[in-house]
Amino acid sequence: MTDEVNEKPTAGPSISWLDTALSPLLYVLEQVGGYIQLTASTLMWIFRRPFRVSQYLNQMEFIGVGSSFIVIVTGLFSGMVLALQTVHSLREYGAESTVGGIVAISLLREISPVFAALMVTARAGSSMAAELGNMRVTEQIDALVTMAVSPVQYLLSPRLVASVVMLPLLCILYTCVGLLGSYVVAVQWNGIDLGAFISYIESFVVLNDLLMGTTKSAIFGALIASLCCNQGYHVSGGAKGVGIATTRAVVQSAVAILIANYIITSLMNE
Fold first, then answer.
1. Which residue, 26, 133, 185, 202, could crosslink 83 as a Cys pair with Cβ 3.0–4.6 Å?
2. Mind listing the pLDDT tens digit for each residue in 145-201?
C-alpha cells in the first residue's frame, strides 16, 4: 500500500518573480520614507530643549564663513564672464549699456542661488555626509544614544538650521561679488558708462528679485542639509560605505537643487 503524499501547490516562482520586479520600487519607497521620517524628526527637535547654541554657531561658521572664499571666487568670475558675454551680444544692437541690469537680474534670480548652493554642496554637504558616516561606522552615534543624547538633535538639527540661515547670506555675497566682477569687465575694460551701468541696475532690479533669490537659497539649504545628513546618518559597510554615501549625497543634492530651482521659478513667476 503506497503512502499518499499531500502536496500543496506553491506559488514560489511567481512570488520570486514579483519580488524581483517590485524590489526597485520598494527600495525607492523605503529610501524616500526614511528620508521624510528623519527630516521630520530633525525639524521637531529644533524646538525642543536643550538648545545647544554652540552647536548652531559652529555649524554656521563652518557652512557660511568656511564657504565664503569659494563663493567669492566663483561669484567674481561668474559675474565677469556673464558681463563679457552680455556686452558682446548687445553691442550689435547698441544696447550694451543695459549690461548692469541684465547681469544683476541674472545673478539675483538664478545664478547666485544655484551656484552658491552647488559650491556649498561640494564643500560642506560632502563633509556632512562623510563626518556623520564616520561617526556611524565608529559607533559614536550609538554612544550618544547610550548617554541619553538625541543624535538627531545634537548632530542634524544644527546643520539644517545653519544651512537654511547661511545660504541666503552666501547668495547675497555671491551677487555682490558678481556685480563687482561685471563692473570691472563692463565699465573698466569695455568702456560702458558708469552712470548707465548703475542706473540700469536700479531700474531693472525690484524687491521680488531679491526675495526669489533668498527664498531659493533657503530651500536649497534645507535640501542640502537634509539629503547629506540622511546619507551620512544611515551609512553601513565601513569605509567603503562612507565613500558611497558621500558620493550619493553630493549627486542627490545637486540634482535636487536643479529640479527645485525650476519648480520654484515656475511658481514665483505665475
1. 185
2. 999 899 999 999 999 999 999 999 999 999 999 999 999 999 999 989 999 999 999
Q: Give domain status of residue 46, yes or no.
A: no
Nine cell digits for residue 266: 515656475
Q: Is residue 43 part of a domain?
A: no
Query: Would residue 7 count as lying in a domain?
Result: no
Look at residue 107 and tell me if it is in a domain.
yes
> How many domains would you assign to the chain?
1
Q: 34 CB contacts (<8 Å, ≥6 apart)? A: 230, 234
